[in-house]
Design brief:
- The protein is of the alpha/beta class.
- The protein has one domain (4-88): Rossmann fold (3-Layer(aba) Sandwich).
- The chain has helices at residues 4-15, 36-49, 61-66, 80-88, and strands spanning 26-29, 52-55, 75-77.
- A three-stranded parallel sheet has the order 2-1-3, with helices on one face.
Length: 90
């Protein structure tokens, strides 16, 4: 079980990385927010820095790459399955 202290310690560690995420960044998240990666790394880090998030309800490589044409994406919270899907996309 992760405690509140564990989550905040992890956020402090990530915030110690220079320019990990800026307040003017926009991130694409296709991870469940009930999972620790989606909750703390994607949502928590965005809240802590003031960055915007675009939540994708289901990951589809082609759809995710063309979501909101013209919208800027500075970060992509992803798992290995997502990286493989984007890599295989023409």
């Amino acid at each position: 079980m992760l405690t509140h202290g564990n989550l905040t310690a992890n956020l402090r560690q990530m915030l110690g990385i220079p320019e990990i995420l800026r307040s003017d960044d926009v991130g694409l998240v296709a991870l469940p927010l009930f999972h620790i990666f989606g909750l703390n790394v994607a949502l928590g880090l965005s809240l802590a820095t003031g960055a915007a998030l675009v939540l994708d309800t289901r990951f589809d490589a082609a759809e995710s790459l063309r979501t909101s044409p013209g919208a800027r994406r500075d970060d992509l919270a992803r798992c290995a399955h997502h990286v493989r899907g984007v890599g295989r996309h023409p």
